[in-house]
Design goal:
alpha/beta, single chain, D-Maltodextrin-Binding Protein, domain 2, five-stranded mixed sheet, 322 residues, 2 domains
């Protein structure tokens, strides 16, 4: 287990304690199951486990995390979409499960808009446009200028669909040609960048921070509209002239379509209160997350906007998974 995964695992274990309190929200003794479509220790899993005790305390309800990983979150999200909308099942969704997959898969078994009610957006995180130190250019502008003069000469390591799509959008706007080199996950992409197999990669702030501080990588920018709390000195891509560029990974809570509105509102209020609890926001920031805590209506608008944004980039890039 590498250092990054140990940090995530520690965060999960410190909060994944048995929760046994009287049930009131759903009017029964059954616990509320939170389906998590990623393995234990992943960002979505960590995000929900950090607030799980506060949800239980605030709602006087037992909550149980149920990890159902597989196929870019498709398996677990499909289970959540078909769960009974009686308030005893909610799920964690992210930019992949509820924005990217709809355009990435030609036969997605669920509809992220039709089959779900957004409850609350928990956190977001931008990615770092990181480069091997030997790559020319101290800034993103300088690098893009070099890449423009040398089309097809630079390789970008791709850790997953979000990184590939976000990168394609950047290169398209900057009118540069890059060669995508796909890897099976963040860890091998990180190693490829450190070893010089690729020139650039879009990776999480937590995965790159120590390498950037030690000089083994350099940071050209942050893909989100706001700077990263763990790399506050690294400017965003938008700050450097790529106006309107904003690609980030977000995580939130959803309920199956038809879930009573009272349940949605109650969980929203408890989650927002948890995110504002002293110590919770700081813990999220230390992991590279920015806390959000919006209303169901605001979150619904964001999901629709993100779905359309990623659909446009996916269609233009031609990426498809059968």
């Amino acid at each position: 287990m590498n250092a990054r995964n140990r940090i995530f695992a520690a965060a999960v274990l410190s909060f994944a304690l048995p929760l046994t309190v009287s049930a009131q929200v759903t009017g029964g003794n059954r616990p509320v199951r939170i389906i998590v479509p990623v393995p234990p220790g992943g960002p979505s899993d960590t995000a929900v486990r950090l607030i799980l005790p506060r949800l239980a305390e605030g709602l006087k309800q037992t909550f149980v995390a149920d990890n159902r990983p597989g196929s870019n979150g498709v398996a677990g999200t499909d289970i959540a979409s078909k769960a009974s909308p009686d308030g005893h099942t909610i799920s964690v969704g992210n930019s992949g499960t509820h924005a990217i997959n709809a355009s990435l898969y030609s036969r997605l078994p669920y509809d992220p808009i039709r089959d779900f009610v957004p409850i609350v957006q928990l956190v977001t995180s931008g990615m770092v446009v990181a480069a091997n130190p030997r790559v020319p250019g101290k800034t993103l502008t300088e690098f893009l200028g070099t890449a423009r003069r040398q089309p097809g000469q630079f390789n970008i390591g791709v850790a997953g669909a979000t990184g590939e799509i976000s990168g394609d959008a950047l290169w398209s706007r900057a009118q540069v040609k890059m060669n995508n080199v796909r890897y099976k996950g963040s860890a091998p992409t990180e190693l490829a960048l450190l070893g010089g197999e690729v020139d650039v990669a879009l990776l999480t702030p937590l995965a790159t921070r120590q390498h950037i501080l030690s000089g083994k990588m350099k940071a050209y920018g942050i893909t989100s509209s706001q700077r990263s709390p763990v790399l506050p000195d690294v400017p965003t891509v938008a700050e450097q002239g790529v106006t309107g560029y904003d690609f980030q990974i977000w995580h939130g809570l959803f309920a199956p379509r038809g879930t009573p509105e009272k349940v949605v509102r109650d969980v929203n209020r408890a989650a927002v209160a948890a995110l504002n609890t002293p110590g919770i926001k700081e813990r999220f920031n230390s992991l590279g997350f920015v806390t959000i805590g919006n209303t169901p209506e605001e979150f619904a608008r964001i999901v629709k906007s993100e779905l359309e944004k990623f659909r446009k980039v996916i269609v233009e890039s031609g990426i498809k998974v059968e």
